[in-house]
Amino acid sequence: MPVGLLGRKVGMTQVYNEDGDMVPVTVIEAGPCVVLQLRTLERDGYEAVQLGYDDKKRPVGGRRSRSGQARRSERGHVAALSSKRSKARAEAGVEAVEKAGSEPKRFIREFRVDGEDADFEVGQALTVELFAETSHVDVIGTSKGRGFSGVMKRHNFSGQRASHGVKRVHRHAGSIGMSADPARVLKGTRMPGQYGNAQSTVRHLQVVRVDSETDTLLIKGAVPGPPGGYLVIRPTNKLG
Length: 240
Known about the structure:
Blueprint: E1 5-16, E2 22-30, E3 33-39, H1 41-44, E4 48-55, H2 72-78, H3 84-91, E5 105-112, E6 125-126, E7 136-142, E8 148-149, H4 151-155, E9 193-194, E10 199-211, E11 216-220, E12 230-235
């Protein structure tokens, strides 16, 4: 299958392989993911499978949704809700989109597929067994946010010298421009700024172990983001 799974980073540990060598691994809770929608060429202009992960709480007793709880629009995305608009569309003969009938999800992503590979059903649950025969994967996540950082932390600059005459500028970047020609700062100059909190992809990571009982995936090496961060795991298309 060309699609992947959604999951959450648990943390890092180490295991021993068959040769007795210690391997650093990242533990990922992958799935189960529910197929929320199927995108088609006729209706959407492209073909994709929409997956959802991690249930979102619903308001109890008809109360209004609070922060962190599923709104009515989010509940209507996964289940059929009665409304004036739905009744009007039904009377007009408009076919309703099939619903998954699941709980609202916190993390939703789509995977592009071809028509021949789109062998999925709305409401179907995908588990970590999807990677049972997969040797390497790509992992997409959001890197740790480090705020506004200086050049030494952001770009690994060595800083100024700690010699006589260098006063309170030891961590500064130094000169950033030229004089009369071209008399401007060049684009792309490495300077202080926002560091982290950006989408990051690590490719061709080895799958060490697949545990279907606990829905966990052991990946060799590190992946982006802090423990608890959401991840997208997909089979790699990189050779070697």
